[in-house]
Amino acid sequence: MSEVCIGLSPQSLEWCEGKMNPPGIRTHVFAIPKRDIVGWPTLPETITTNMKELVVFTGAFVLAENKKWQKIKVLVERSPVTSASQGTKPSKTFVNSATFVHPGVEEDATAFCRLANNDDYVYIIQTKPGKYRVIGNDMYQTETNPSQALGASATDEMGTTLEITVTDICPAPFYTGIIETVDGDINAPDEGGGGST
User: Does residue 12 lie in a domain region?
Assistant: First the structure.
């Protein structure tokens, strides 16, 4: 019996002239070791009504008992997030990358560097319009490469930089589920909304 192949067709990409499109992320990134996630949201394989559905997680992260997403304060002007295609057909994927610059270099920031350097983390960022996106997944390991600059002269920069890279089947997927943080639960915005942290 031959396989029946059903392709997904795209829909139009519209844009309203004059619409504001603020770039960048908000001031807090959320991080957790992958081993503390016991249930994962999923990406749909098909479209019901709108192709947007393909990039929005269904469900929510389920964390191990007493585990929470930790907050990392970042300098937003120096913390870009990007996605790029990689590989060859029919196995092309995306590499999702982020640079998170934290201003601290003291014991807590240094300890995070030591822990994340050889571990596998998942990160959630919030865009300026308020939507949450995920960097990390249950299929591929996330690389976190930390570095610190202590400075020398009075005008030198100090801080901790986290370079994040991970392979994914989608550019940083959107997440609308609950984020259980150390400071309490955050209700992510709905499709048209925009919460804050």
Answer: no
Q: Which domain holds residue 104?
A: 28-36+70-176
Per-residue tens of pLDDT for the chain, all 197 residues: 677 777 788 999 999 999 998 999 999 999 999 999 999 999 998 888 899 999 999 999 999 999 999 999 999 999 999 999 999 999 999 999 999 999 999 999 999 999 999 999 999 999 999 999 999 999 999 999 999 999 888 878 899 999 999 999 999 999 999 999 999 999 744 544 444 44
Cβ-based neighbours of 133, under 8 Å, separated by 6 or more: 81, 124, 125, 126, 127, 172, 173, 174, 175
Please give the tally of structural domains in the chain: 1
Q: Is residue 136 part of a domain?
A: yes
- The set of residues, in sequence order, having a beta carbon less than 8 Å from that of 74 and lying 6+ positions away, is 25, 27, 28, 29, 100, 101, 102
Q: Is residue 196 part of a domain?
A: no
